[in-house]
Structure formats: structure tokens, C-alpha cells
Amino acid sequence: MKNNGIRAPGSAAFIFIFVTVALDMMAVGITVPVLPKLIINFQHGDVARAAWFVGAFATLWAAMQFFFSPIIGVASDRFGRRPVILLSNLGLGLDYILMAVAPSLGWLFIGRVISGITSASYPTAGAYIADVTAPAERAGKFGMLGAAFGLGFIVGPAVGGVLGGIDLRLPFWVASGLSLANAAYGFFILPESLPPGKRKPFHLRNAHVFGSFKLLRSHPELFGLASALFVMGLAHEALPNTFVLYADQRYGWNETHVGLALAMIGVASVVVSMLLVRPLVRRLGERQAALFGLTCGIGGFLIFGLAPSGGIFLMGIALVALWGVANPSFQSLMSRRIDPSEQGQLQGALGSIRAITGMLGPLVFTQVFAAAVQHGGQPLLGAPFLLSAVLLLVTLFIGAKVLPKKAAA
């Protein structure tokens, strides 16, 4: 079937987008266990100095996402989703080769800059889903996209740890192979989703952070929904930034216990995203599904923060996983409120919001945890998770106000 000279995207195209996001995140995850050790090697074993660079590299990566997500999103509105996604895969694959052979910390730094830019394809994947999916089905598809994201981060670090035990450079070569293979596969499989007639001219005033945020302010309800996503994204940062420290200090868990718990959280989240988002949204509607998810998240973080034992802590995993219903519901509702030619710009703006929370979260939650250790002792070690529960409560109030009672067509 043809549409303005473009093949109509089918199930194979969605599978490719799913695989693209999963492999991109897996490639990122593969490098997580070895990047700090590679930096330590470049610093000749100076762990304290290396730790500073590890933090700087993480902030740098998030900053690149912040600045380039809007640019890539607007570029996909002008040139189509297919070339942006394929070039991102190609660039990421070549960049991993650069990091694999990096002879110094400076070259590794350049590699992380490029990685932050080329990894900003997630917004384009979201725009692709909005292009090819009926509004009523978008929440389920966005949930599947979240599942792909989660799968990549579950499998990636485990594979990276094994490969890094063989050679610290090997995970970068494997990550490169995954990205380049994905680019080659997409070249033959992935059709374009945005016909030329629906594309939007490229303007520099839109291709930056403030331009994309202007879009959020220009539509009724859109800014309120984006604000809710920001607060909700910040709440999420408690887990990746303080969980390991918290589990060690409060429950005395070793690396194996921590790894298994993180795997349980990841698997539960993927199951919810893949199997429960779509039926819950169909049954409850996007508004009620979002509010339900937020309520579950509040309960889950309260359990995390107050649990006196590790066994009770694990009981909160199911509730935190069900929180995953909220994000696709918000994202779907936002995608309904703009023109097809602006989907890339919207997803780019959301990518920048995610990057902001990625930069703020480590600072906020680690400082809260440090204060709890120094001044509160054992009873207040769960303060970061209790703060997340408060943030989700704020999101719940925002959502109750701005979530439309009737979805737009």
C-alpha cells in the first residue's frame, strides 16, 4: 500500500521501533558497568578523581540529551522519522567504536558527548508511534515503548558486566555492533511514517529547548500535563540514585541482593508496560488510568521508605511497577492535542524534560540521603523514597486538575 510515495507502516515497522529502543538502551546499559573502571584506568587508579569524572560524564550525557532532543525532534518533523532514526543508530554505532579505541580520557569525553547526542532518538521513536497509531491505542503503544526501554536496561548491564570481565573495551565493541546492525536492519525494513504533506518547515526558533517549551505553553492543558510529567520524572530518580546505598545501610544487602532486587523491579515494570497498560487504559480511560498509576506509585514509595525489613520492601515492587501505567497515559493525552507535524517537537520537549530530571535527580536525592544518614539515622534512611511519594502526591493533584475528563479525538 502506498501513501504519497511512502509505504504504509505495519507491524514490522512497530517491531523495528521497539527493537531500536531496546537495543539503544541495551547498548547504553552495556557500558554502565565498565565506563567507571575505564575512567579509573585513565586516572592511574586514582578512585577519588575518577569518581568526579564519572559524575561529570553522567551530567554531560544528560545535558546533551537536554539540548539535542528538541533539535532532533524538530528535524524529524521536517525530514521525516526514518532518516533521523537511522542516522542516530549509525552515529551511535560509530561513536561506540571511538570509545572502544579511545587512547585518553579526552577522547572518551568526546565519545560521551556524541553518545548523548545520538542517543536522543527516543523522542523520534515516540513521534513515530504517534504517527502510526490511532489515538485510542497510543497509551498501549507508548507503554510498549517503555517496556523496550526497560528491557534494554535490564539486559544491558548484565551483559556488560560479563563482557567487561573479559576486557574493558569489549562492551563498547558489542554495543557498536548492536547499533550498526540495527541501522542496517532498519534501512531495509523501516518505512517512513510522516508523509511529505504533513511535514513542517525547519525553523531555528523551534529547534532549541525554549522553542520546544513554547509549544507546551501554546496548547490548552499541554503545559499542565508536561508539568506533571516533570514532577513524576523527578520522583523516579530516587531509585537509581539512592537504592544501592539505602539497601546497604538499612538492610545490609550485598551486591547479589541488590542486583536481584533491581532485576525484580525492572522485570515487574516491563511486565506492566507490555501486558497491563493497554487493557487498563481501555477499561479505565487514560485519565483514570493515570490517576490509578500515580496512586499505586505513592503507595509503593511509602512502602520502600518505611519498610523495616527487606522482605516488606520487596512488597512495594508491584505497586511501583503499576505506577508505570501513568506515564504512557499522560504521553498519549499530550500527543492528541497537537498537529501531526508537531509530534517530533513535542517528543523532543519531553526528552528535554527527562534530561532535566536526570540532571537534578542525582543531586537532590543523594543530598537528601546524606542528610538522613548524618542527622536522622536509621529511621529516616528512607527519606528519598518518602520524598518521591510526596512528589507523586503533587503530581496526583496536578493530574486531577489538568487531565481531561474526556479524551480529545
Throw out a few tags for this protein.
mainly alpha; disordered N terminus; 79% helix; 2 domains; two-stranded antiparallel ribbon; Growth Hormone, Chain: A; 409 residues
Quick description:
By secondary structure, the protein is mainly α. It folds into two domains: 10-190, MFS general substrate transporter like domains (Growth Hormone, Chain: A, Up-down Bundle), CATH 1.20.1250.20; 206-409, Growth Hormone, Chain: A. The protein contains 18 helices and two strands.
Overview of this structure, please?
The protein has two domains: 10-190, Growth Hormone, Chain: A (Up-down Bundle), CATH 1.20.1250.20; 206-409, Growth Hormone, Chain: A. It starts with a strand and ends in a 7-residue tail after the last helix. Helix 3 (47-79) runs parallel beside helix 5 (105-118). It is mainly alpha-helical and 409 residues long. The chain has helices at 11-31, 35-42, 47-79, 81-101, 105-118, 122-132, 138-166, 170-189, 209-217, 222-236, 238-251, 255-284, 286-306, 310-315, 317-322, 326-335, 343-376, 383-402, and strands spanning 2-3, 6-7.
Major beta sheet, specifics?
2 strands, antiparallel
How many domains, as an integer? 2
> What is the count of β-strands?
2
Low confidence ranges? 1-8
The rounded Rg comes to 21 Å
Structural class: mainly alpha
Termini separation: 25 Å
The shape is globular
How would you name the CATH homologous superfamily of the largest domain?
Answer: MFS general substrate transporter like domains
- Tell me what portion of residues adopts beta-strand conformation: under 5%
CATH architecture of the largest domain: Up-down Bundle
The mean pLDDT is 82
Helix and strand element order: EEHHHHHHHHHHHHHHHHHH
